[in-house]
Amino acid sequence: MTQIDLANRDGLPDALRVLLQQYPRDMWESHSNFDGLTRFWLERHLMFRRALAQWQDDTCGFLDKGRDPRAHGQMTARIGGFLINELHGHHHIEDAHYFPVLAQAEARLAHGFELLEADHHALDAQLSALTEAANTHLRALQDKGADQNASAGAMLAKLDGFERFLDRHLVDEEELVVPTILHHALKF
């Protein structure tokens, strides 16, 4: 049995993969119902993955190579604020607009869109913990007596844990949303 909560699942349950079987990932972009908004939405997901990787890389550079604390702090504030704020906004739009339309169009998968919305709540808790770790690290960077490596390590641990959550959610979301859009020729 597939776990359905974000922390424990390794993919969508088979019952939610029915359209994915009809519309596998490798044919999405060539499908006649694949439009600019769908491409934009997938690009946003890629942007989230890249921003997270950039934040992780910069933090590793600070820990391993002695990256300048000031430049690292600026990068942490900029990329961290960007990623966290953009994810909150993205999830709000999906929950308020896209998921209800998708669930109505494909009633068999309504539970899947509820699952994705529940993921957003789980991700909110992760984002709050990540925000706190980043703020703690930024304060440590301002305090010459603070253990800046310890705060960077704690933040990196949160980033690494968040990466698994985020990737699992994004993959599952893509595999539920895109086939539904393609199947029903939805336009938003």
Could you outline the blueprint of secondary structure elements for this entry?
Blueprint: H1 18-22, H2 36-65, H3 69-105, H4 110-142, H5 148-184
Describe it.
InterPro entries: Hemerythrin-like. This protein is 76% helix and 0% strand. It has 188 residues and is mostly helical. It has a single domain, classed as Four Helix Bundle (Hemerythrin (Met), subunit A) (Up-down Bundle), CATH 1.20.120. Helix 3 (69-105) packs antiparallel against helix 4 (110-142). The radius of gyration is 19 Å and the shape is elongated.
| CATH-derived topology | Four Helix Bundle (Hemerythrin (Met), subunit A)
How many individual β-strands?
Answer: 0
Number of helices: 5
Radius of gyration: 19 Å
Oligomer: single chain
Overall shape: it is elongated
What share of the residues lie within helices?
over 70%
CATH class: Mainly Alpha
Q: Keyphrases for this structure?
A:
188 residues; elongated; Four Helix Bundle (Hemerythrin (Met), subunit A); single chain; Hemerythrin-like; 0% strand; 5 helices; Hemerythrin-like domain-containing protein; mainly alpha
